[in-house]
């Protein structure tokens, strides 16, 4: 079911929902294909899975979910199964082109081998961000993140 609805609307997500779990009538109304989706979360995690359901708050249900981590020219995957994501944690949601997914220009390695390197990179980035925030606070007059006046 091709539509002219821009991807930023909820209506375009209807095409990406897996219809195997829906009733017969609902399945007829929707496309009968499974779509792999990439979800980036606020904490930096990247999840790939089949979109089973969503709501108006961007709460998502992903099935056959894989968590991917990247470092340099390497990546690793870990199966996490069914994943329920609260909408406020979603930064990006996008459809994966299945033809191009197999042509990832990165080298796949074991998850256990890459996890400590990835964790160190995340910790280094967090420390660097903290140091930058400290400089902005002390030298430039910015407020601390989460402090008074840092509301929406």
UniProtKB/TrEMBL annotation:
Localization terms from the record: Cytoplasm; Cytoplasm, P-body
Protein name in the entry: U6 snRNA-associated Sm-like protein LSm1
Chain coiled-coil ranges: none
Function (record text): Component of the cytoplasmic LSM1-LSM7 complex which is involved in mRNA degradation.
PROSITE patterns linked to this entry: SM (PS52002)
Any one biological process term the GO annotation gives: deadenylation-dependent decapping of nuclear-transcribed mRNA
Taxonomic path: Eukaryota, Fungi, Dikarya, Basidiomycota, Agaricomycotina
PANTHER family: LSM1, U6 SNRNA-ASSOCIATED SM-LIKE PROTEIN LSM1
Keywords on record: Cytoplasm, mRNA processing, Ribonucleoprotein, RNA-binding
Quaternary organization: Component of the heptameric LSM1-LSM7 complex that forms a seven-membered ring structure with a donut shape.
GO molecular function, a single term: mRNA binding
Any one cellular-component term (Gene Ontology): ribonucleoprotein complex
Family: Belongs to the snRNP Sm proteins family.
Translocase found in the keyword field: no
